[in-house]
C-alpha cells in the first residue's frame, strides 16, 4: 500500500532549463495538491487538481509554471526557464474524493536546486 | 500578516519531559484545524484533525486542543522521545464554498529538538 510517491527526490537544473516534478497519489485518491516550501517557511499552496481538471491554481505563478493530472499517469508540475528563486522543496499531497475533513497524505517532496 | 502564527519558533527539551506548542490563527470561516509532524527531509504526516466543534483530540502521546472563540490551538506532547524531534505544523482549513473544497493554510512550524 504505497503512499504518495514523488520523483525525483532531488533535482538540479541550470538557470533557463525546465524542471518536471512527478507525483503519484495514493491508490484511490483522485485529488492532488502541490505545495512549495522555502527554508524556514511554511508550505505554500500552489495548485489543486482532480483527474483531468485544475480546480484552483491561485497559488501558482501565472508564468513558467503549469500543472496537470491526466486520466492516466502521475500528476506533473512543470517549471519552464527556471530561475534561482525557484529553488525550494515541492511537496505533493493527495486525498480521497470526499475531501472535506479528510487528511492529506504527503509525499517526501522533490528538492529543486537551480544553479 | 500570516493567518496562522505558531510559537515558539524553536524549542529544546530533555527526553521524557512534556511540552506545549501554540498556534493562533485568524482564518475565518474555517472548517478544521490540523497538526502535522514533519521530519527533516520528509513530507508532513498528519497527527490530528479537529473540526470547529471539537475541543480536544488525542493521538497517543500527542493531544491537541482547540478554542474556536479565541482562535487558539495547542499541541501537547507527553513524555517526549528522541524521535519527537521534528517540526510541528499547525494548519487551518479555509473553507471555500465551492464544492466543499478546503484550502489549507500552513503555519511556519515549531522546530522541536529532544535531547537525551
Task: Describe the structure in brief.
By secondary structure, chain A is mainly beta. Chain A has strands spanning 5-7, 10-13, 19-24, 31-37, 44-50, 53-56, 65-68, 75-79, 88-95, 105-106, 110-114.
Protein model, in words:
Chain A has strands spanning 5-7, 10-13, 19-24, 31-37, 44-50, 53-56, 65-68, 75-79, 88-95, 105-106, 110-114. In chain A, the strands form 2 sheets. In chain A, strands 2, 4, 5, 6, 9, 10 and 11 form a 7-stranded mixed β-sheet that branches. Chain A has a 4-stranded antiparallel β-sheet with strand order 1-3-8-7, with no helix packed on it. In chain A, strand 4 (31-37) and strand 5 form a beta hairpin. The model of chain A has no long low-confidence stretch (mean pLDDT 92). By secondary structure, chain A is mainly beta. Chain A is built from no helices and 11 strands. With 116 residues, chain B is mainly β. In chain B, 0% of the residues lie in helices and 59% in strands. Chain B is built from no helices and 11 strands. Chain B has strands spanning 4-7, 10-14, 19-25, 30-38, 45-51, 56-59, 62-67, 72-77, 86-95, 102-106, 110-115. Chain B is globular. The N and C termini of chain B lie far apart (37 Å). At the A-B interface, strand 5 and strand 10 of A face strand 4, strand 5 and strand 10 of B.
